[in-house]
Specification:
By secondary structure, this protein is an alpha+beta fold. Helices cover about 20% and strands about 25% of the residues. The strands form four sheets. Strands 11, 12, 13, 14, 15, 16, 17 and 18 form an eight-stranded antiparallel beta sheet that branches. A four-stranded antiparallel beta sheet has the order 5-6-7-8, with no helix packed on it. It has a three-stranded antiparallel beta sheet with strand order 1-10-9, with no helix packed on it. A hairpin with an 8-residue loop joins strand 13 and strand 14. It is globular. This is Rieske 2Fe-2S domain-containing protein.
């Protein structure tokens, strides 16, 4: 439980808020690469309470600028994208990706006024099928977080995106909460599939250490709703294990699901061998969050059928689950399209797609949940640790220290979640182990 004052400090992200200032010290995704077409329409970006505009010039270079034209504030989201620059519709000012004013066609031809003005432009990195932006002080720009998939061609990566209509902390808490897997994301049919898998593995005499099927979907050989949580702090945040009894041979084995919280907004969740997954919750403002689910095939391009299966399971199919701006079609106004008849049959939540399930419960808590009214339990250990780490980092940041994750080199390329069934005597730290090199 937090006090009302602590909750405000944790959740608010505007330019003048303590947390907003700290979050601006990190590289954050602004949008997916696929959203920008060379010479195409600019895209509105809402990030940390600020309105930005992103565009891709004819040469493929991406720019991210303040959305208001420096002349008289007209939105550059309406601008013409031509000649590798944005031209404001109002008076024709032309602005380069780096913020230089290239032309003021309504001014005298010999004007040098344009040399005295610069549009606010932010450092941009395009990597891993995402466009990343740094909003902080130029002299404090950190090293770019080179995850194991950020150097891969876009064809290896599937980026799922959705907008959650609630505060970012509610979303992040869900990403690092392993206990809800058994309930929110489970159903009678899923439990039965787990039982069938365990029975089959036992009959085959197999050691059930691989919990994924051929499409990369996880097949959990457990139905233990009371995980034991273990946590270890790290330079980037923490690693934690949800330890459960397997469906068979529980006197010999344990199921271990390891997730890594990578400050300030990332959760590296379990991935099968040869794959990598990262959940990112980026605050658009205090009341809206951009959710990104990055799945990367480290060994081969994503095939269309596997991509279709993954999008469908998550509830991230454009036109079916999402509108053109990544808002969910299942939302508060229609009770997230919950199907009570489906609940009677084989779906615990009655809601289609794991992402929609997550957003339904998170949005149902209100725009910003009042954490002074909650009653935390043992299953909330990771959530409690995440809050403490961020609040501690915030205090240290205000005292002049670098934020958590920016103080020492972080081996991003080797941070990968994992789920395995291992012998009881084996340490959980052997699962999802982080090394200095990938």
């Amino acid at each position: 439980m937090l006090t009302v004052e602590e909750n405000e400090r944790l959740t608010r992200v505007g330019p003048q808020t303590p947390m907003g200032k700290m979050l601006r010290r990190y590289w954050l995704p602004a949008l997916s690469s696929a959203e920008l077409v060379a010479g195409g329409a600019p895209r509105a970006v809402r990030l940390l309470g600020e309105d930005l505009v992103a565009f891709r010039g004819d040469d493929g270079v991406v720019g991210v600028l303040a959305a208001a034209c420096p002349h008289r504030g007209a939105s550059l989201v309406l601008a013409k994208n031509a000649d590798c620059a944005l031209q404001c519709l109002y008076h024709g000012w032309k602005i380069a990706p780096d913020g230089r004013i290239l032309d003021m066609p309504a001014e005298p031809e010999d004007t040098r006024y344009l040399e005295r003005i610069r549009q606010v432009a932010y450092p941009v990195r395009e990597a891993g099928a995402l466009v990343w932006v740094y909003l902080g002080p130029a002299e404090l720009e950190p090293e770019f977080p080179a995850w194991d998939w950020t150097s891969l061609p876009d064809e290896h990566i599937l980026v799922g995106k959705a907008v959650a209509e609630c505060n970012w902390v509610q979303c992040l808490e869900g990403a690092i909460d392993s206990a809800h897997q058994t309930y929110l994301h489970d159903s009678a049919s899923r439990i039965e599939r787990d039982r069938n898998y365990a029975r089959w593995a036992a009959e085959q005499g197999l050691d059930p250490t691989d919990g994924f099927d051929e499409t990369g979907q996880i097949v959990r050989p457990w139905a233990d709703g009371r995980p034991k949580l273990q946590i270890e702090d790290t330079d980037f945040g923490f690693s934690y294990a949800a330890i459960r009894k397997p469906l068979f041979k529980e006197d010999e084995f344990k199921n271990v699901r390891v997730t890594h919280f990578v400050a300030p907004v990332h959760a590296a969740i379990p991935s099968p061998a040869g794959w990598s997954q990262l959940i990112i919750h980026v605050p658009m403002d205090d009341y809206t969050t951009a959710f990104y689910h990055v799945r990367a095939n480290l060994e081969a391009p994503y095939d269309e059928e596997t991509a279709r299966v993954h999008k469908n399971a998550a509830g991230l199919v454009p036109g079916v689950d999402l509108d053109e701006n990544f808002y969910k079609l299942a939302n508060k106004s229609n009770l997230w399209k919950q199907d009570r008849e489906e609940m009677k049959r084989d779906r615990f939540s009655g809601i289609r797609g794991t992402v929609t399930e997550d957003q339904a419960v998170q949005e149902s808590m209100g725009p910003i949940f009042d954490r002074s009214k909650e009653h935390l339990a043992t299953s909330d250990m990771a959530v409690i640790r995440m809050r403490r780490l961020l609040m501690q980092s915030l205090r240290e940041f205000e005292a002049g220290a670098a934020p958590i994750g920016l103080r020492n080199p972080i081996p991003y390329a080797s941070i990968r979640g994992e789920e395995r069934t291992i012998p009881l005597s084996q340490a959980w730290q052997s699962v999802g182990r982080i090394t200095e090199s990938s």
